[in-house]
Amino acid sequence: MRALVFKRYGGPDQVAFADVPRPVPKPDEILVQVQAAGLNPIDNKIRDGKMKAILRFQLPATPGSDLAGVVIEVGSRVTRFKPGEAVFASIFGLRTGALAELAVVPENAAALKPAHLDLVQAASIPMVGLTAWQALKERADIKPGHKVFIPAGAGGIGTFAIQLAKCLGAKVATTTSAGNVDLVRSLGADEVIDYQKQKFEDMLRDYDAVLDTLGGESLEKSFQILRPESIVVSLVGPPDAAFGRSKGMNFLMVFVLGLLCRKMNHHAKKRGAEYSFLFVHPDGSQLAEIGELLEVGSIRPVIEKVFPFDQAKEALAYLEKGRAKGKVVVQITNEA
Questions:
Q1: Could you tell me the fold of the domain covering 2-125+301-331?
Q2: Class assignment of domain 128-277?
Q3: What is the pTM of this model?
Q4: Do 19 and 73 touch, CB atoms closer than 8 A?
Q5: Nearest of 262, 276, 156, 271 to residue 211 by alpha carbon
Q6: Mind listing the pLDDT tens digit for each residue in 1-22?
Q7: Who has the most CB within 10 Å: 8, 76, 132, 253?
Q8: How many Å apart are CA 127 and CA 327, to the nearest integer?
């Protein structure tokens, strides 16, 4: 089968199309004919080798975490899916990538595609949907009336997280450029800050949660807007000791991670708040719940650009520029 692969870690020049063996599903896996693959910034980070300390891949490897397609084969222990059904899934950190004609997906990582979404739309959802769900529902436990700050609201995660936070009954603040104000307001943002003219730390007060997607100076300043007993959930800040324990790291590595996030914990302690690092994990049951929100129109996909499979390298390069509004999707077949 045809797939996009990288044979060694490095820049965009390491990625090329290749004919690779057809994957064989294990007893608890399904084989999916991929019709669309959603791209995420971490796909380029994996190729660069920036995730090697956390994620190990057997090279050559296929990038891509999100997919939508049709089941063509099921393992002997699979009970939830059958051939011919359309599914969507995140296979982040698993043994195959999404930028391929076929991919194996663990049964517990997949969900039936929402009926009113096409496969391109469905492929845009898994990573951003699961990230927002695990951050806002699980870690931050957002309730009606809470105030949530989601910077970079026009990005892939931001466009989904704003909508989910509103579904949970929260008031949402975000940052964006002037050209994207109408977009983030249409998604439900209550307070929109033009980061080119205003400083969010001067504008916001007494927030219950921050979903940090930027790290660095933005992460450190986000603690200034918190009320006591609040939380900052970071996707890109320093990993914490809890993350190390969840990954089964040894005592020394857990201790090192504790040192790495000491500065964030200090900022949090001064506000009577909590710092938490989130590393998203595939979860088909959560994806099914997200699918229900999509089905009734409570959340809508936001896609900026769709590339054909032959231009998958260009799609990754476009995403790497960091200017996409919403998601970038690669259409593997014309049937999506």
A1: Quinone Oxidoreductase; Chain A, domain 1 (3.90.180)
A2: alpha beta
A3: 0.94
A4: no
A5: 276
A6: 999 999 889 888 889 999 999 9
A7: 132
A8: 10
